[in-house]
Write a structure and sequence with these properties.
163 residues; alpha+beta; 5-stranded mixed sheet
Length: 163
């Protein structure tokens, strides 16, 4: 019965064939695949709480189960500051921002986040830092500046880019 109907209407048969080809190609290119927004990750759970408490000069996003934070430095340096002074101030700000992320994130979700990547931008220098989530959680309970400095030296990988 179906075969007779399709043979009597060849345009209908060509339309069905073309729609099958279209849907197959759309699925191959990922247009009909699963939505990544609906896949739960620890990074998204961290962003829910962190986005409420971050300053206006921060941007955050999830890259899979990795947290990416982009920070634009808005402070001023004294006139005639040497590059060493600027570098020292930027690294102190980076450490303070890592502590801020650790304090304002849920510890159980941050611990399950694979990597936390920070891109710290300033007019003369960019600093890229990466740390594993379970190392960053330990900053929540640390209060001594010496302990924090030692912990950051051991766990944070840093790359500088001078402009």
């Amino acid at each position: 019965m179906w075969a007779k109907t399709l043979l009597k209407n060849p345009i209908f048969m060509i339309g069905i064939l073309l729609s099958i080809i279209f849907l197959y190609q759309a699925k191959q290119k990922g247009y009909l695949g699963t939505r990544t927004k609906l896949i739960p990750t620890s990074c998204k759970a961290v962003l829910v709480k962190l986005d409420r408490r971050i300053p206006a000069n921060w941007q955050t996003k999830c890259e899979g189960n990795n947290l990416a934070v982009f920070i634009k430095y808005v402070g001023n340096f004294p006139l005639g500051s040497s590059p060493q002074v600027i570098k020292k101030v930027l690294y102190r700000e980076l450490a303070n921002n890592l502590k801020l992320i650790a304090i304002n994130s849920p510890s159980d979700n941050l611990e399950r986040t694979d990597w936390v990547r920070i891109h710290f931008m300033e007019d003369t220098m960019d600093i890229n830092a990466i740390v594993e989530g379970h190392h960053l959680v330990k900053l929540q309970t640390m209060t001594s500046p010496k302990l924090i400095a030692e912990h950051l030296k051991v766990t944070v990988k840093v790359q500088e880019k001078i402009k």
